[in-house]
Amino acid sequence: MFADIRALACLFVFWKxxxxxxxxxSPGPGYDTSTxxxxxxxxxxxxxxxxxxxxxxxxxxxxxxxxxxxxxxxAQRGYLFEQEWAWGWGYTRLLSLISKVIPGAALSPLYAQxxxxxxxxxVAHLSSVIxxxxxxxxxxxMDKRQRRKVAFVAASLHIFSTAGLFLSxxxxxxxxxxxxxxxxxxxxxxxxxxxxxxxxPFSLLSLLLSGACFGLATTVRSxxxxxxxxxxxxxxxxxxxxxxxxTIVTIVVIGISAAxxxxxMLFPQxxxxxxxxxxxxxxxxxRPWCTRTLPSIYSWVQEHYWNVGFLRYWTVxxxxxxxxxxxxxxxxxSTGLTAPSLWFEQQGLDRKKDxxxxxxxxxxxxxxxxxxxxxxxxxxHVQIVNRIATGYPIWYIVLAAAIVSPSRAFxxxxxxxxxxxxxxGMIMYSVIQGGLYASFMPPA
Length: 444
Hints:
With 444 residues, the chain is an all-alpha fold. Helix content is 63%, strand content 0%. It is built from 18 helices and no strands. The protein is globular and about 65 Å long. The relative contact order is 0.13. Mean pLDDT is 88; it is low at 347-351.
């Protein structure tokens, strides 16, 4: 196992160096000079003029693109404008915290935020790779003899994720992946076939910690809410459990865990409500979303500033973006539907209840990525699915199972014949996307 971790770390370093070299060699800012204008304010006469400092600034300037401009600005001076609340509160707070311990932060604070973002992205991405490797060993979806190979391939696929350079830049995808994977791992450590009345201290603690991780992930990206769907497995298990004091305690713990996930979304909304709808600034002009039944600044900003809504993105001009996202949508939906059937590879589950419990459990793990794909297809900017899908573990594991044992893992032929094409597509897309991103060119 340690040999696998070392090999994954070496593969990670190689891939990151390649993408960073592509970014550094990109021709320039493209049509948008926002990064140059923003970081120009961070220049200081006292800044270091060493070659290393110069190279670092040039590289980080190629990574501060699109949403990263907002992330580092908000982290440096807080939320000022309404539309900035679309970017994850948890991520910007962590950026601000990490930047304070970076040498030279007082001299060039915006650069410090950018450096902090790059550090967080790399550390969180590597952590995600290791967590995903460990997660495979706790899921009942393949033959035990194949788990080590599947774990290694799945973790490798995560290294080469279609998020590409977004997992190196000051973006929230890496941190979200780490927290979401950790939440799934903690939840997977609870025996899926265990009735609720048998939950002991270890299982209850795992439930609470998984809820905390999912809640933190939701402060980073709002789609962390989807991870709460895994608790539907406990609802199913309730019908196969005796009602006693331990069962009631378990239900309460499940409720607390779900509440932590929900609070990850509601807490930033509450702070925004206090500022725009209750605070001194609300006296002059009350924003329209303040009077809604559910006064969510996030949904208002998405709708008002980015035209997010059901079928609003379905325009002729956006057809190329749908075509760009179509492969990932196919992967998310097909692997999500296929995942429950992989339990047939597991040995010793020949009883009807084991079949039911495992099918329901794996289905609940796969539901978040299916819901993400459906919402991307119908509601929000579809092209971003290529980077936000990186935070969902099941599709990596199913593809890895297909690569390791295609004839056995995919008897229905839904994904098996295409896994090699998908892997090559991931590599090509990430390399091309890296050059385009660093040059401030879409897709973003």
